[in-house]
Design a protein that fits this description.
It is a single chain. The chain is an all-alpha fold. It has one domain (4-72, 108-117, 125-219, 260-299). Helices cover 71% and strands 0% of the residues. The chain has twelve helices and no strands. It has helices spanning 4-23, 36-60, 77-100, 123-150, 155-168, 176-193, 196-212, 214-221, 227-259, 263-266, 276-280, 284-299. 36% of the residues are buried.
Length: 300
């Protein structure tokens, strides 16, 4: 079959979604007591997100060089920082817009239901279970494996599908715009820096922001006299970070292209191996969308 990755990547997402759905039926008592709960959650995420992706790489014979598992260079620092602020303030503005439209979106983890209220104050363990482990496992799955499967159709298609399948994994239709926007920035980060570790850093810090700071920002915008100021600051910082991110991205892409580094992997010429529409029309993708919608309505 031509473009096997177009067919198999949504299947991988379906498998991960099915495994994630099972989590909702886990008896919390089997996770242990006290801090052991967080270890159990970390192990569950490895089983659900990391190992299926690892097995997929093995059986699909995905080239390791295409997974962007490079140590980032120092030239990527400014771009990565600007991408972090872009994703934080961009997601913030989307959440504001949804709130003002009467839609309440929460970015809480699907695993948070497994944590007893008495353990909710364990900041270090919360950070490991809901920020560090998800950032590493989701970036490997979405920005390493899934992006590599779609990059033959062009980087725009690869970033798009990594973002949309990333959004599917969170089972939250109301927060879908936030996850999709975040996925686009993370995919762009992995592509420009040529390192999934940069997108993982952005993802990790954004997760920490959601865990420990988002509720305070949301509370501010709910106070009428704070609305204009809060939104204005968010817009200014988002535009500044986006401007800086795109400028730094152009500089890095020009440098990498001029040095012809890994051209066959990262800088694909005019694509002759499918496009966005052929990937969208691959039978497994509509099935993946259907599975996502069914699960969302089942758990709502």
């Amino acid at each position: 079959m031509k473009n096997k990755g177009f067919f198999s990547a949504p299947i991988l997402a379906i498998i991960v979604m099915a495994l994630s759905l099972l989590i909702r039926y886990v008896d919390v008592s089997i996770l242990g007591e006290g801090d052991a709960v967080f270890l159990s959650i970390a192990v569950l995420q490895l089983v659900i997100l990391f190992f299926p992706a690892l097995l997929y790489v093995r059986f699909r014979n995905v080239k390791i060089s295409s997974l962007r598992l490079r140590i980032p260079s120092g030239r990527s620092v400014l771009f990565t920082v600007s991408a972090l602020f872009a994703v934080i303030f961009g997601s913030m503005l989307i959440s504001f817009g949804m709130y003002f439209s009467g839609v309440s979106a929460s970015s809480s983890s699907m695993y948070s239901q497994l944590v007893p209220d008495a353990l909710a104050s364990r900041a270090v363990f919360i950070s490991i279970a809901f920020a560090i482990i998800p950032a590493l496992t989701e970036e490997f799955l979405c920005r390493s494996v899934i992006m590599s499967e779609y990059q033959s159709a062009g980087i725009g298609t690869a970033v798009f599908f990594s973002a949309i399948l990333f959004s599917f994994l969170h089972f939250d239709l109301t927060a879908f715009p936030v996850y999709f926007f975040s996925g686009l920035i993370l995919g762009f980060t992995a592509f420009v820096t040529r390192s999934v570790f940069c997108s993982a850093i952005v993802h990790l810090i954004h997760n920490l922001y959601i865990l420990f700071f988002e509720e305070y920002i949301s509370a501010m915008v709910k106070i009428p006299q704070n609305i204009v100021f809060t939104v204005f600051i968010a817009v200014v910082f988002f535009l500044l970070s986006l401007f800086l991110m795109l400028g730094q991205g152009e500089r890095l892409l020009y440098r990498n292209g001029s040095l012809a580094l890994d051209k066959e992997e990262d800088f694909i010429p005019e694509n002759k191996n499918g496009n966005l529409f052929s990937a969208l029309l691959t039978p497994s993708f509509p099935i993946c969308v259907t599975v996502y919608l069914v699960i969302v309505f089942l758990i709502t």
